[in-house]
Design brief:
Layout: E1 3-6, E2 10-15, E3 18-23, H1 24-70, H2 75-88, H3 97-109, E4 121-126, E5 129-134
Antiparallel strand pairs: 1-2, 2-3, 4-5
Helix pairs in contact: 1-3
Length: about 140
């Protein structure tokens, strides 16, 4: 069992058979560095997920736009498409009829951009929706 003696400048940890002196300042800095690295990894993971979602939304929007242009898909087919996606991926939100049309609008707005994810994007919440815009 470890016992700790705390002073202002150092923490002395005494454990069975060994003694270690740990600088409180060094420990605090190490903890701060590790916490910062964890937070950076969390941000990178979130950005990576967002990047992939933007690619998927772009693809879905493009697919719907092309099917509407070539095969004359109407809102009834898009609604069926949305329902089928929701059944296939239960618990994964974002595939409502309205969102599918938003994906199509996203594609239409940035149709001339071949690789929308190559740009810098920012997201913000607005009225319950996530708004994606280029920087």
């Amino acid at each position: 069992m470890n016992k700790k003696k705390v002073t202002k400048k150092t923490t002395k940890v005494i454990s069975k058979g060994s003694k270690a002196i740990i600088s409180t300042k060094d420990y605090a800095q190490t903890l701060l560095d590790v916490k910062k690295r964890i937070q950076e990894a969390q941000i990178k993971a979130t950005m990576s997920v967002n990047k992939e979602l933007i690619k998927v939304y772009w693809y879905i929007g493009k697919t719907i736009a092309q099917k509407q242009a070539v095969n004359r898909w109407g809102s009834g087919i898009v609604e069926r498409f949305a329902n089928d996606l929701q059944k296939e991926f239960p618990g994964l939100g974002g595939f409502s009829r309205a969102n599918i049309f938003n994906m199509r609008a996203f594609y239409a707005a940035y149709e001339k951009v071949q690789q929308p994810v190559g740009q810098s994007w920012r997201t913000r919440e607005a009225g319950g929706l996530t708004v994606v815009s280029s920087l």
